Amino acid sequence: MRIDLHCHSTASDGTDTPAELVRHAAAAGLDVIALTDHDTTRGHAEAIAALPAGLTLVPGAELSCRIDGISMHMLAYLFDPEEPALLAERELVRDDRVPRAKSMVAKLNALGVPVTWEQVERIAAGGSVGRPHVASALVELGVVKTVSDAFTKEWLADGGRAYAPKHETDPFTAIRLVKAAGGVCVFAHPAAAKRGRTVPESAIAEMAAAGLDGIEVDHMDHDAAAKDRLRGLAKELGLLVTGSSDYHGSRKTVALGDYTTDPEVYGEITRRATGAFPVPGAGGA
Q: How far apart are CA 189 and CA 254, in angstroms?
């Protein structure tokens, strides 16, 4: 089985619609794909309706969190999307994305960059707006060559000249809410140092004690040394080890299935979940 547990669609900051995403996943030879858009489950229904036979969808979300001033992401799988407390927290985070993006536009304007909110809104195309959409606007304007080039201190990285904060959930709160909604929690790309400061291992240990299920180890932003270190930490803490592409369509160079999760780990994730279940494809449109 080929299993990719971290993918994005136009419901947040990917460039494939949910329907296109599942069709591309099937064409890439995947057996299981997780749809984990940022702080939203809005793309799930479309993905399920289009799900090809032979492909299973894991409904999920990538939750925006912050601990001790460090931004981090929590992958939540197979939770009840209508559980009130978790739904309210996701909406709180998502609702803060628009004023945050407008603040970044204003900061860019003050730096002499002629980006507009209308441009960012057009790029987001109704998705959960985020920094990648602002970064894409900078690419359109020729300010930077790639989206990744915008995530520097010069522009949009944490603490960068045009950075603006948004509401982010405490990870211990996120773990508690996801667990209460019957879901499973995996810390996304914990050693992605090029994105900014990373969470110390002592804090990961505290999260493990609080119910964290796993850490994403095989990821494009982790070099070999980081992967080895994280595997050792996972073994020490009794955490599951996942691998995922973190696919965003044309917004990133990584392809679907470039990094995958062991079938036994996937089986354990599904065994632990009680809020929702993987959806097998029945040959969607």
A: 14
As separate numbers, helices (DSSP H) first and strands (DSSP E) second, the chain gives 11, 8
Which runs of consecutive H residues, i.e. helices, occur in the chain? 18-27, 44-49, 84-95, 97-110, 117-124, 131-140, 147-150, 171-180, 201-210, 224-237, 263-272
Cα-only R_g, the chain: 18
Q: Using DSSP, state whether 115 is helix, strand or coil.
A: coil
CA neighbor of 230 nearest in space, from 265, 262, 200, 190 = 190
Q: What pTM did the predictor assign?
A: 0.89
In whole angstroms, give the CA distance from residue 8 to residue 141. 24
pLDDT, residue 283, reads 67
Q: Give me the pLDDT at residue 199, please.
A: 96
Neighbours of 262 (CB within 10 A): 15
The whole-angstrom separation of Cα 120 and Cα 44 is 24
Written as six digits, the tokens of 244 are 């995922």
**Number of neighbouring beta carbons within 10 Å of residue 242:** 30
Which residues of the chain register pLDDT less than 50?
none
Best CA proximity match to 285, nearest among 59, 35, 45: 45
Which residues contact residue 167 at a Cβ distance below 8 angstroms, ignoring those fewer than 6 apart?
64, 92, 93, 96
CB atoms within 10 A of CB 153: 12
| C-alpha 173 chain-centroid distance | 18
- Predicted local distance difference test score (pLDDT) of residue 95: 86
Paired with 229 in beta bridges are none
Q: Could you give the C-alpha distances from 47 to 17, 25, 146, in angstroms and in order?
A: 8, 11, 28
Mean pLDDT of the chain: 95
